Amino acid sequence: MKTTIEFIKLTILTVGTTLAILLVTGIASFAHANGDLYKKNLGVGWGDTTTKGWGFSEKGWWTTGAEHLKRYEDKKDISLFDLQGDITRYGKTAFFIQAPGDECFQRREDCDRPNGMKQKRVEAKLKSAFKGMVWVSYSFMIPDSYEFNHHKKAIVQFHSDYDYYPPMFLLQISEDGLLWTHESGGGLLTVEGGTDECASGAGGDGDTHKRMYCEVRHDWYRLIKADDLKTNVWYDVVMNINFDNKNIDKAYHKVWINGELVHERHNQTLWEHYKGLPKEFMQTTFNFGIYGTSLDKTYQAIYADEIHFGKKCKKLGINKLGYDCKQLEAQEIEESEPWASEDKAHYYTTGETKYFKNPWY
Asked: pLDDT means per 10 residues in the chain (361 residues)?
């Protein structure tokens, strides 16, 4: 199966009186009455391979700010998140996800954060959580309409299921390429009295409405260089992470792209448990879509497919995409070093930005 779109595909669909024009450019107007993002199963039917292996979660999926997203969709006559069948990596369907930049269409907590940030998010979020050894596959394609800039937009997040902890990992797109962002490598810093700065200015816990638990460092690993990150090409990503906060020396994270091991690091993955906090929330949950600042007023869109979960590689079913788990697991590379690394503890305590490693200067 070819993974490069070699032609511009124009399909005209008539649904009642609604005319939907689907373009490989990703600038699309869909009939949005069904609202796949707001469905427990995201619209994926029995036997569909767009999502697979998440059945341990009978609770299904949800999204942040649903009523605000729906209001924007009605006003613009578009859909932000659709299960469509015209452009897929494998099988009959894949998700088309778009995040316009004309206005902040999320809830007030995102559009008017205390630190001045304005975040847009069109995300499917798993209601249940997990820990231990996990494998996740995620195929994505960037259409020509995607507006790249220095602001990073996350398309995958492994987030703490404790709301007041930051995410552990993000797969991000920017003008620097495809980045694997690791926020839990240095553990957490407890900020006395809390701060509006960590977690991109999201609200916190307690009476202060500020975040008390902030990440010590941010490490960015560049998986694909900017010049090599192409539009209209499917990228098959496989992630193997051991989320272990009891034996941190056994924790690690690996990433394969199109069958090649491009990242491996052995260090802390899951946040440690702080005394006094609920132990049942010290796990990981999974989000995918488009998430990042709306201050740049840019447009982003992606196609996403084959989003699978398993405790072992063979459970992902990536053989259907032409990959062999034994071959993947046999690959070895030197341990990855961060492409960029920021001292976040210094920033949260002094307000000054400081890098351990800064590729931009």
From this structure: 37 32 48 75 93 81 94 95 97 97 89 82 95 97 97 96 91 98 94 76 53 92 98 98 90 98 97 84 95 94 98 97 98 98 93 95 91
Residue 162 belongs to domain spanning: 41-357
| CATH number (domain holding residue 185) | 2.60.120.200
pTM: 0.89
244: left (phi over 0), alpha (psi -120 to 50) or beta: beta
Long-range contacts of 176-179 (CB under 8 A, 24+ apart): 176/150, 176/152, 176/222, 176/226, 176/359, 177/222, 177/223, 177/224, 177/225, 177/226, 177/228, 177/229, 178/222, 178/223, 178/224, 178/229, 178/235, 178/257, 179/152, 179/220, 179/221, 179/222, 179/223, 179/339
Residue 34 in any domain: the answer is no
Instruction: Give the pair of three-digit tokens for residue 197.
Output: 């700065």
